[in-house]
Amino acid sequence: MQKLKEKGQYYELPIEGYKIKKMLFSGIMHIIFDDKHESYLDFCYEFKIQKYNQTNVLKSNTFETLALFYDLWNEQTAIKEAKADKEGFLFLTFENGFEISVENQPCNNWQFTTRDAENKNNNVSAYNCCGSVCF
After folding, report:
1. How high is the pLDDT of residue 14?
2. What is the 8-class DSSP label of residue 88?
3. Per-residue confidence (pLDDT) for residue 131, from 0 to 100
4. Which of 4, 9, 35, 61 is 20 to 30 A off residue 119, Cα-Cα?
5. Are residues 57 and 46 in contact, defined by beta-carbon separation less than 8 angstroms?
6. Domain range holding 119?
7. How many domains is the chain partitioned into structurally?
8. What pLDDT sits at residue 92?
9. Distance CA 38, CA 66 (A)
C-alpha cells in the first residue's frame, strides 16, 4: 500500500485532471473518477462548497449534495487541484471554479482510494482521522 505523494505541507491526491465518472448515493456521497483505476472519494459527513463567491455547508446525505455532484458530473468539469493537509483537511478545486473543503472532525469525514489491479503495491487509501491523514 502506497502513501500519497507529499508536496510541502500537503499530500496530493492523484486525481488532478480527472472528471467524475459515476456517483453512488447511499447515506454517503461516493464519487468515482474517470482515471484507469476508477479512484474514488467518499464524503462521509459534512463539507463546504464555495461557488460564485458564496460558501455553503452541506451534509453528505442530502439531496443538495446529490444535486451538486450531479451538476459537476453533467458539466464534465475536471479536478484542477486535489490535496489534503497533514491535519486531515481535504481541498478540491474544479476547473469551473467550484471549491470543496472538508474539515478534520473527530470522525472519518472523507476517504480516498485507488486500486491498481495489476500492481497492488500501487494501491492508495487515505482518510482523515483525529487531526491527521491516515493511510
Report:
1. 93
2. S
3. 62
4. 9
5. yes
6. 5-134
7. 1
8. 97
9. 19
